[in-house]
Amino acid sequence: MDATPFLTLSALLFTIGAVGVLVRRNAIVVFMCVELMLNATNLALVTFARVHGQLDGQVAAFFVMVVAAAEVVVGLAIIVSIFRARRSISVDDASLLKY
Amino acid sequence: MNEFIAPTVEYAELSPLLIVLGAAVVGVTLEAFLPRRGRHRIQVVFTLVALVAALLATGWVAAGLDEVEGASGRGLIAAEGAIAVDGPSVFMWGVLLVFSIISVMLFAERRIEGGVSAFAGQAAALPGTEAEREASRQGIEHTEVFPLVLFAIGGMLLFPASNDLLTMFIALEVLSLPLYLLCGLARRRRLISQEAAMKYFLLGAFSSAFFVYGIALVYGYAGSFTLADIHAAVDNNTGSTNLLLAGMGLIAVGLLFKVSAAPFHAWTPDVYQGAPTPVTGFMAACTKLAAFGALLRVFYVAFGGAQWDWRPMIWVVAALTMAIGAVVALTQSDIKRMLAYSSIAHAGFLLVGFAGAYGGDGITSLQSVLFYLAAYGFSTIGAFAVVMLVRDPGGEATHLSRWAGLGKTSPLVAGVFAFFMLAFAGIPLTSGFTSKWTVFSAAWAGGAWPLVLLAVGMSAVAAYFYVRVIVLMFFSDPVVDGPTVSVPSLFTSSALVVAVVATVVLGILPGPVLDLAQQAGAFVR
Amino acid sequence: MTPELVVFWLLSVLTVASAVMVVSTPHVVHAALWLVVTLGAVAGCFLVLTAEFVAWVQVLIYVGAVVVLLLFALMLTRSPASTTGATSRNRPVAAFAGFSTFGVLAVVLTSGFRGIVLDLDSQPDQLGGAAPPERIGDTRSVGEAIFTHWVLAFEVLSVILLAALIGAIVVSGRVRDRDRQEAAAGGGS
Fold this sequence. Notes:
The complex is a heterotrimer of chains A (99), B (525) and C (189).
Chain A: H1 4-23, H2 27-52, H3 56-86
Helix pairs in contact in A: 1-2, 2-3
Chain B: H1 15-33, H2 39-63, E1 75-78, E2 83-86, H3 87-107, H4 130-137, H5 145-158, H6 165-183, H7 190-222, H8 227-236, H9 241-258, H10 267-274, H11 277-302, H12 307-329, H13 335-356, H14 365-389, E3 390-392, E4 395-396, H15 406-409, H16 411-425, H17 431-445, H18 449-475, E5 484-485, H19 490-508, H20 511-519
Antiparallel strand pairs in B: 1-2, 3-4, 3-5
Helix pairs in contact in B: 1-2, 1-5, 2-3, 3-5, 3-11, 3-14, 3-19, 5-6, 6-7, 6-11, 7-8, 7-9, 7-10, 9-11, 10-11, 10-13, 11-13, 11-14, 12-13, 12-18, 13-14, 13-17, 13-18, 14-16, 14-17, 14-19, 14-20, 16-18, 17-18, 17-19
Chain C: H1 3-24, H2 28-48, H3 52-77, H4 91-113, H5 139-147, H6 151-172, H7 177-185
Helix pairs in contact in C: 1-2, 2-3
């Protein structure tokens, strides 16, 4: 079967994730959208691995997943601590830092 | 069943990296076993010893690098192709470790906060509650910052030395994750600090998603992550050019975010302002160095054959970065934000050197950028160390109006700060002048003269706001009950002395360090 | 239409639909649950591409660990589930950015790979890959690649996990009682 549908799906998923990061206000949902982008990356990596008949792309997808897991741990720790301090995790409310 | 062939890892050549990461792991273990009293002192000593050991190992590795046949560089590709231990790598390792030692000395400063460090006593305690005050009173503090900073340093050592894009991505995360956390640990102004951590984290995760998608596209183009294979694919023009261009663009987004180049600079002022000042200094010097090293390696080694495609993009970004950094800095009223915009402007000057992509006789673009990074790092750590000293009862006095007349009340501190400002402005006899001169002349030799002219103009604009601070400190009247200047402990004082001496020496006698940068030669692929 | 193609089209419709729900649903817990559907469908795509190991790791790490963590965080922060202000005002900008990104990426990817046929049954050594002659993507072959060529990156990944763990404890952990007593006894050294 053709490689194009997989790559188009990956591009679409990446775009949906990127739009989500820009429009959502809840920090955790923003972070979920970043996860969508990383998943799109993994799909592209695995497809390319298949196109080139190699394993490297699959190994890369595995590594990206592990990195994403570490990012979740750090990110949620930061987000939960900021929530405990100010009872809101809206990205727009975080505005003590102004120009 | 085929036999498993064990990989070869060149432990000797990788020793600086292994020492730093190993020390981080041991540091975590120390946290678990040492009693809380004295833990701070032991962690500081242990971290500094590890960094000095890694620095010595770097010198030893640098002395033993062999010439590569048929190429201009020295070095080797180690660990199954994951790391290039070459001249530029060891130069950056050396400079990074020196900066790290100075920064850790600032991290260790306890006297100016009255016996506690600049980091939150208990990050989990809510700001302004009894629990927080109690933690403060009892002198409870997070000594985990030292292992965390060692993790970040390990990532920074790996980042500019990685020889394939996947290792580079992982190194990027190793250096970023601890920094996200360190940003949120300021003792004073907890809310701003936490907010800085969240902004840095969300934008950082967003940009690294772009970076890794770019890696995927380049992998699709070249069929390999290794920089040398990508170089070969670019030369042979194997795949679709569109794919290469999109991949390069996305990788550039990720890296330019880390060097805080416009239009990906929005996080810089917020994070520099909110983070604890020692961390800000560390980020300004070390993250910038590591990220520029990686940027140069990817674009010179992997995409060198396509430089007519990426140079226009870098020209635009460099011009925009200089303009935004220099112009917006004029409007700042907070000293840390002003230094943040100054660091954006300096990223622009560095990009000018990068955009020149000159590789002929004399000082190449790579060597000039390496020298600039070394010179800039000392001054910027020094400037942030001075910011730590000027204090109000509520913490650091970062509002610019509070600094008025500081030259009359404490001439020494104001003089040192003024000296760093002059170095940033690029006044002769400071390191700022020599480094700007080498970068601009390399860029000129590479044919980027319009950009150099713009850069000189922007240096003049930037000089205006640096001089404005000096005028404010020395020629206006002191504010009533103005900030006090704390007397720091030996750690901060020696860090400041090192920064001042380095800024003077690199300005008057840049020869030895320039020679070192020139000996670093070129990247090995 | 081959069976793979039918399965793929079903999965891709599911992926896109659930991803759109993640981005658009006002209820944050629903967003997390839709994310499970997306991740599962992507795992299915990996299986179609014969990347078995990656597919199962996707299920274990993402669906099993990441989403559970996200749900915990959502519960801890008790975010309001109301529709008001779930999305910020920069919608038109985001829509424009989204459409242009997708346009560029789709053109780039399809122009680069039009007509490239994925031979899902072939052995990798016929394709000239460096993989051992098992089926590409099974646990054994991925494991060998990780522990030979990618060993350094793999070891550094373990360092990332340790750093993330320590960092999360620093940000959210409380000082132990033993330490508190010690500090009190020491008079705040």
